[in-house]
Amino acid sequence: MAHNEKPTALIMIFGATGDLANRKLFPSLYNLYAKGQLDKFAVVGVARRSLTNEEFQLRVKESVTEHGEAAANLDEFVSKFYYHSHDVTDSSSYIALGKLAEELDENYRLDGNRIFYLAMAPEFFGTIAEHLKKDKLTNVTGFKRLVIEKPFGHDLESAKVLNKQIRTAFSEDEIYRIDHYLGKEMVQNIEVIRFANAMFEPLWNNRYISNIQVTSSETLGVEERGRYYEKSGALRDMVQNHMLQMVSLLAMEPPIKLTTDEIRSEKVRVFRALRPIIGEEVNDYFVRGQYGQGSMNEKEVPAYRQEEMVDPDSNTETFVAGKLMIDNFRWAGVPFYIRTGKRMKAKSTKIVIQFKDIPMDLYYQREQTVNPNLLVIHIQPEEGITLHLNAKKSGQGTEATPVKLNYANKGIDGLNTPEAYEKLLYDSLRGDATNFTHWDEVALSWSFVDNISAVWENTNEHSFPNYESGSMGPEAADKLLKNDGFFWWPVTEIDVDNC
Ligand code: NAP
């Protein structure tokens, strides 16, 4: 479907009374509607609690008002929302749901197109998919697509089971696995920066790049997600999906065309080239951390082990730093360092591409230091690109001084960039799966991560908690780079706003 075409579909949201639907999905759908990007559509919300259509519409209205920018057409928008009270484990209720779907399809002339958005816990995905098929909700005359949230399994084995279940009702090209990082403006921009600029692609290899650093730090702690997080940890929650996805976009070969299949197959090749880290090597390549007490914004905050629903002796990591090696011709010898954690000093997602030093530093002879060139991609909260160069200090002499060329997305557009969910919802409605993860990517990234969790789960980390809340993680994470002669570029000092 072309970019200006307006999709038509019945959107069925399972888990329509939950946090994700409320904070992200309703406001995103409304934004698409307000921009005129949705044509004919209706929404069926599904959850257990009993609500009338009117009560549900009121919730949607409140969600848009609270989390989005509501305008006059909000009543018209919510009039297309219907509610079906239904326990997804109860087989008897799918028939009634199917009837409602058919009625809406006819009344709104939706061409038999259906999106099934599962905004609920993954343990229900298999049951729902099986019922949708058995009770013929997937027997449609138009398209049918399944949109699902992370986590996609807990490890490779469970991901395989889940995949098998959903594949009973949907083919791979009908499955849209959301990784909301892939909906972020600047993550999508990695591709454009690399493949639309003559000045980067020729340098994008081991001859000119010394190392790449990907940081995604949060200031928040585990909040009320203790129960989920205890079983997940930062490795499964962040590395298996978001961090490895960013690495694959940075490392992939230029695709022969910018189509979904070509891009995905290049990303898969990166995962295939990722050096497996097994057994004792894990300690050389990866560092885990867990936050202790500390002070954030001058307020004392508790240690992870003191949080609600967390085991007081928990071995779960809230921080991971790692060194990834991509064993192919382009990247041989170039470390990709990743780090992610909770309760860190700053909320920041950034990529720093550090170029190699020039072959002969003439300024060194004059006892001056010349900084390496950096390309910094600011993903969030600020969005933009900064290029760190050296130029002449103005005035007498030829002394070099660092300069930063800066492109700040918000500063230029003066607008908030669209929420990742809005873009991803629109893509799923248009049938563009480029920014969703293919099963092959999921499987390969789990097998990489499983090797690390196998070691960590079998050895208690006696140094936990090993970083203070409000710091940038454990010292061992700094050592990881120091051993290679590098250091983490401080995320706050290279902020686009500070340039
Ligand atoms: P949530 O707030 O706990 O919502 C769960 C929803 O599922 C509720 O609407 C609940 O409504 C419904 N539900 C639970 N059991 C049901 C059953 N047996 N039959 C029918 N409906 C049932 O969860 P959430 O935060 O929205 O997260 C949903 C999914 O998105 C999870 O997989 C999560 O990991 C993922 N996710 C969420 C976020 C986020 O920002 N929240 C971000 C990334 C990924 P009733 O109680 O009325 O049944």
Features:
499 residues; alpha/beta; eight-stranded mixed sheet; six-stranded parallel sheet; 14 helices; 17 strands; binds NADP nicotinamide-adenine-dinucleotide phosphate
* Helix count from the secondary structure assignment: 14
Rounded radius of gyration (Å): 24 Å
Strand tally is: 17
- What proportion strand? 15-25%
Could you name the ranges where pLDDT drops below 50 across 5 or more consecutive residues? Answer: 411-417
**Helical content (DSSP H or I, runs of 4+):** 25-40%
Largest sheet: 8 strands, mixed
**What characteristic shape results from the CA principal axes?**
globular
Q: Ligands bound here?
A: NADP nicotinamide-adenine-dinucleotide phosphate
pLDDT averaged over residues = 93
Strand order of the biggest β-sheet: 8-11-12-7-13-14-15-16
End-to-end C-alpha gap: 40 Å
- The structural class is alpha/beta
Kindly describe this structure.
This protein has 14 helices and 17 strands. The chain is globular, with a radius of gyration of 24 Å. It has helices at residues 19-34, 53-67, 74-78, 93-107, 125-134, 156-167, 185-195, 226-251, 260-273, 282-285, 409-413, 420-430, 439-458, 475-482, and strands spanning 9-14, 41-47, 81-85, 114-118, 144-148, 175-177, 209-217, 286-289, 291-296, 299-301, 319-325, 335-341, 348-355, 374-380, 384-392, 400-408, 467-469. Helices cover 34% and strands 21% of the residues. An 8-stranded mixed sheet has the order 8-11-12-7-13-14-15-16, sandwiched between helices. Strands 3-2-1-4-5-6 form a 6-stranded parallel sheet. With 499 residues, it is an alpha/beta fold. Mean pLDDT is 93; it is low at 411-417. Residues 192-489 form the Glucose-6-phosphate dehydrogenase C-terminal domain. Catalyzes the oxidation of glucose 6-phosphate to 6-phosphogluconolactone. NADP(+) binds at residues 48, 87-88, 150. Residues 12-189 form the Glucose-6-phosphate dehydrogenase NAD-binding domain. Pfam families: G6PD_C, G6PD_N.
